[in-house]
Every structure is written in structure tokens, then in C-alpha cells.
């Protein structure tokens, strides 16, 4: 029998995955210019897959493209971020309601494990990853072709500001965050969709109100030319 060739990842997919990780990890600041030639050198790719990758990340809310000008890491003003959080307050409770009935017992157990892991870590970057994994998993039972991707885009646009929020308050200083995660797991374990909706809405609102109290987060950073 002739062995099938191993599938290869396209260059634009590889560049998009690498740049996505760099942006979400904070290696690029909001509003920082993305130099396509540097990306091409970094990933060992030509300009065409780099441009395709940037268009893909623009659709994900991570990059802003200006025709005939260039690409920048997407950024939000305080007012824009507050609006995004208000949208999240309304749509994510719906997503968790749609998800809970279809969550497998193994997923519910993993939510408990993620909740415990967030309490134990002292690393902001690890907390941010665990937190996103936790909420993504809580929504993973929803069968939706629109809302899930929409929420993922909203999370992408606020990633930098979630990091800034965590840097101000620390991982454990705001104990309400851990309590809300715990209460959400308990509601999911009971299958109480009404309570889960309420907790998710309150959880997002708390972060929004805290961010509004720190407008310095949204000041223009010093960026590379």
C-alpha cells in the first residue's frame, strides 16, 4: 500500500496562527504597526501569504488594514471597549444558555479543573489562557454558526485590555472573579441555565465597570515605527 502524503499547512495559515498567538500574547501592543516584510522574514514566507494572513486576522478582529497604507494591531478607545463589553453582557448569557444542555459530563468536569487551576496560578499569562479556555469550553455545547464566532471576535478585540485589567488587579486580588467562576460551574453542574445566564452577565459587567475606572489603560502606547 502506498503511504498517503502528510497534509501540509498552507503558508498563510501558518503565518496567521503564529501572528495570532503573538498578538494575543501581548507581543504586539494595540495600535502597533505590523511590518509585512518583517513578518515574511520571521515566518520564512513570501508577501502573498502574509497579506492573506493579515486579511484573515482582520476578520477575527485582531488586525486593522488600511488600503495602500498598511496593517496595525487593532485597538479600542475606552468608549469602544465599553460598548464591546455591553454587547458581551447581552450575547454571552444567551450562548451559555444554548450550550449547557449539550455539554458532556467530561466537559463539565474539565470546567471544574480549569476553575481550580485559575485559583492556583500566579501567572497572568497562564490565568488569561485558562480563563479563555474556561469560558470557551462553557460555550462549546452551543450549536451555532454565527454567535460562537461573533463572541470569539469580541474576545479577540478585548484581549489586550483583559491583560491590562489583570495587571492592575493581579490574578488573585479580585476574589470576585474566582467566586463567579465557581458559581458558574455549580450552575452548569445543576443544569440551571437561568442562573448561569445571570452569573455570566454579572461577570462581564464587573470587568467593564472596573475598566471604566482606569482610562489610562487606553492611552496611546509607545510603538515601534
Automatic annotation (TrEMBL):
Pfam families tied to this protein: FCD, GntR
InterPro entries: GntR_C, TF_FadR/GntR_C, Tscrpt_reg_HTH_GntR, WH-like_DNA-bd_sf, WH_DNA-bd_sf
Domain annotation HTH gntR-type: ranges: 9-76
Alphabetically ordered keywords of this record: DNA-binding, Transcription, Transcription regulation
Residues of the signal peptide: none
Record-level Gene Ontology MF annotations: DNA binding; DNA-binding transcription factor activity
Keyword field contains Transcription: yes
PANTHER family (alphabetical): GLUCONATE OPERON TRANSCRIPTIONAL REPRESSOR (PTHR43537:SF24), TRANSCRIPTIONAL REGULATOR, GNTR FAMILY (PTHR43537)
Stated name of the protein: GntR family transcriptional regulator
Annotated organism of origin: Leucobacter luti
Amino acid at each position: 500500500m502506498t503511504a498517503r502524503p502528510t497534509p501540509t499547512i498552507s503558508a498563510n495559515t501558518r503565518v496567521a496562527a503564529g501572528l495570532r498567538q503573538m498578538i494575543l500574547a501581548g507581543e504586539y501592543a494595540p495600535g502597533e504597526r505590523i511590518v509585512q516584510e518583517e513578518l515574511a522574514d520571521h515566518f520564512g514566507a513570501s508577501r502573498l501569504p502574509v497579506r492573506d494572513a493579515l486579511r484573515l486576522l482582520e476578520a477575527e478582529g485582531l488586525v486593522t488594514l488600511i488600503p495602500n497604507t498598511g496593517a496595525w494591531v487593532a485597538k479600542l478607545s475606552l468608549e469602544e471597549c465599553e460598548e464591546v463589553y455591553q454587547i458581551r453582557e447581552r450575547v454571552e448569557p444567551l450562548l451559555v444558555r444554548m450550550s449547557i444542555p449539550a455539554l458532556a459530563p467530561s466537559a463539565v468536569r474539565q470546567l471544574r479543573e480549569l476553575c481550580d487551576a485559575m485559583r492556583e496560578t500566579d501567572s497572568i499569562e497562564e490565568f488569561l489562557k485558562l480563563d479563555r479556555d474556561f469560558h470557551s469550553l462553557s460555550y462549546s455545547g452551543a450549536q451555532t454558526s454565527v454567535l460562537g464566532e461573533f463572541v470569539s471576535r469580541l474576545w479577540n478585540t478585548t484581549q489586550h485590555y483583559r491583560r491590562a485589567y489583570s495587571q492592575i488587579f493581579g490574578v488573585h486580588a479580585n476574589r470576585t472573579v474566582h467566586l463567579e467562576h465557581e458559581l458558574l460551574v455549580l450552575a452548569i453542574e445543576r443544569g440551571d441555565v437561568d442562573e448561569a445566564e445571570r452569573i455570566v452577565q454579572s461577570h462581564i459587567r464587573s470587568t467593564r465597570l472596573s475598566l471604566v475606572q482606569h482610562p489610562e489603560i487606553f492611552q496611546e502606547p509607545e510603538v515601534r515605527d
